[in-house]
Amino acid sequence: MQTLLDDPDFSLQSEELLEFYRQYPEIAADDLLNVKLSGIQKVVLRSMWFRDYVMAIMCRGSGKTFINAVFACLKAMLYPGHRVGLLAPTFRQSKFMFEECVKLYQRSPIMRDACERRPTTQSDNCYIKFKAVGIKNPSVIQAIPLGDGTKIRGSRFYTILCDEFPHIPEEIFNMVIRPMAATVADPMENVDKVARQKEMLGKGLITQAEIDEDTVTNQIIITSSGYFTFNHMYKLYQAYLEEMQNGNAKYAVYRVPYWLLPDGFLDTKAVEAAQREMSSLEFRMEYEAAFIPDTDAFYRASLLESCSKTSFTTQVVGEPGKSYCLGIDPARTEDSFAIVVAEMGTPAKIVHAMELQGESFVHAAQIVDELCDAFNVQSIYMDAGGGGLAIKDILAENPRGHRAGPILDPDDDLHQLKSGRHILTMCNFGTEFISDSNFAALRLLEHRDLLFPVVPTSDTPVLAAEESWGIVQDMKNQMLMIELT
Fold first, then answer.
1. Is residue 294 part of a domain?
2. pTM of the predicted model as reported, rounded to 2 decimal places
């Protein structure tokens, strides 16, 4: 019995439709994935589609993660055998792109029908596998940990999407990610193809322009919000921009500030509130997609960046033989309860950070006690305000029944006669204390006696370590807002 697939007219129409979608990915997004794109999103998507090296600096809320997902899904659907890698500084951030792909899978019946099975999420690997077409291998969209680069070095990706690019280590990008663009999908098939093209060119049957048009190369797509000019992303941005301005059609760069988005795309009131509440520096990077040379803040951005070029990362337990210190900013329900763990020594190293929301004082005290065990904590410094005194009282009751006894304040007369761990110092955040603390921290940073961790690079990601690194980044961003008054 003859099927529809055996009909030559149907096959011809299918090939024509496939080619049409390959030429107009913005229409394919509407027809195949059931999504509507804004004008600027269509422009960026087309550049991603037809250029080999694209950098898109896009403002908060512009949908850069969403555009990455649309691009990845269309590539896998329209080019059988294609492999798309979703990479970011941490596996948690890579999964943000993957989750957008999953949303498209749920939204699009056509994409679901094109897939071999439902999206798969594992502790160190997330992927969507498509059905094989003819003799081609199945297309795959895959998010894996960046790690130290060794895992992706063994992966075969023909398109790589790099999100949150400023925090992807420059050496990993240069030594591992960039060379992947030189690897073709089927090397020997490509050798035969090039030989045929040269022969036809020599006979005058085709032109060089037709060869260039027919050549399919690997792609590296970079997306981010704005950042500082002393970061490696800006150097690459300048290089891409120069190539584009010199007429190299393989390169494209975009900066998409909030005012290029159509009316109604962003909540105007939310943007106005952000402009009032954020520093001008933060607003320019986040909403204007701007590159900032440096800051005039008390802690200069370049100083924090220099103290972040290190060889250690965050950890969830301390190392044997090392001593650690806790800095605690307690808070009531309306604010964050923050904890920072520093490895003592010269230099001191920030190795862990936590941010708790809406936790009871009892539970917060238990977490502090657990950290003391995990990190061999020898001293704790805690703000007396915001519930600090309540936490102190709970710690003095030894809520976990620790064999070494309760955590006590040696400066408290009531605690001096008790046995236990006399490691707690309460701090009163008055004007003089705040000033002295900031100048002391500045001196440490200027002498590189206080250092920040690099992004976790374990091939088997520990979620707590990645979250800890993200909180350290938030802390550094808040330090940039401190001004001398």
1. no
2. 0.82
